[in-house]
Amino acid sequence: MDGYVELVRRRLEDRTANILSNLDDLPEAQLRFTMRIFGDCLDETAAGEMLAGYSEHMAEGELREFARSFVPAYTGYAIAELEEKKKDGERFDPPFLTQEEYQEMSVREKWPRIAGRLERVPPLQLRREIARAAMLFRPYMLSDPGFNEGVLEFSLYYELLDRMRLQPEVRLREAAAEIARGIARAVEAGATEEGELLLREVRAAAGAVAGLTADPETLVGPPMEKYPRQAPPEYRSRELRNALASMSLKELRLSAMVHIDLLTAAETRRIVSPFFGRYPSFFEMPAKGLRELILAIAEAAEERSLLSFAERFGSGRMAMTKPVDHDVWKLMPEEERVVLLRGDNERMDAAMMARHLARFLLSESERDLSDAGRQIALLNDPEFIALHGGILARLGGKDEGECVRRLYDAVTLEASRMAGLRGAEREEAYRGIRELIRGEAGDAASAGPA
To answer: For position 450, what pLDDT does the model report?
Structure first.
């Protein structure tokens, strides 16, 4: 019979062949996840060499081409590591565990091995295992062999790794010893209230190494969010140029409208008006002119998005100002968040605020408000155009726009409070915000849905 090394080698080679044969069909998120799985099994030297030039913000075609050469190169690395670790026999304790074996073992199987030979575990692997321990949210995860790959879906894992990068090795080993004891007790307690409590203590110990003062469970973001969250400037520009190159004239017009919606009236006069002066009307602007217009707006408003005015309350990604680090935002007291949100509001004008208020009124749920497709569709909706124009006419012209600013500030306070609620309470708070706007906007809001 074939030995362990030969069986694993064959499995790695078969896996690579399967990935490469299906590579053209993998969606963008699956490509990035494949890179995450393999990248998590590289040492720091190999990662620096093999992932040089890689970014999750690459266009899908670029990701695919990078993976086409990276995957077989990684397989060669994994096989070489396997042969080196097992050259003196099939041993499955540190330092003879491969990085793939660390990734494949369940928590309850792996941590006794780590605890038994803690001094032989490399610092990078300690950081990885501590970061995973910070994400042990439920007792069943202790026995789930898919847990190690599952955490790779979340940016929190990578943030924890980055936060621990400067920790001295002695601190990592002390924390790992404490975590190992906690995991052993949690395994013994199983799926009980005591087990939940013990896992909370494990998460606290792991989070403390990364400088967190809150339960890491409160910091988990959406799955397969690109990391880092903010694309490097060169990727933002390149990604947009690539997207614009493939758009039809109709799509370009819609994209231009989305970008114009991100601007204040003064910015519109400064950036957009020169383009309108070159063509009889917006709808007679050719594709080349629309592309130039969109790129000019994107350069001036590079970190803005159509949804950020609503999503900032839960994420810290501001509508007009620099975003706040996700973890910092989650840990920040509500009073400090409100200060930053009000500072963001100060960069808006009455026209922009009126548009945002109209979006609240025409979005029957918070989910609708954060649905990009629905919000883009409003740009061509006569009801939206009439509603935000009516709000601006009724409130924006009074006291140099102070009426609309006061209403927008009140909505900001209520939305910030809503971000801390869940379930029915959150839904009720959202309905309250819409009623607040409707009551202040008066006749201008009569077109909006009840």
So the answer is: 44
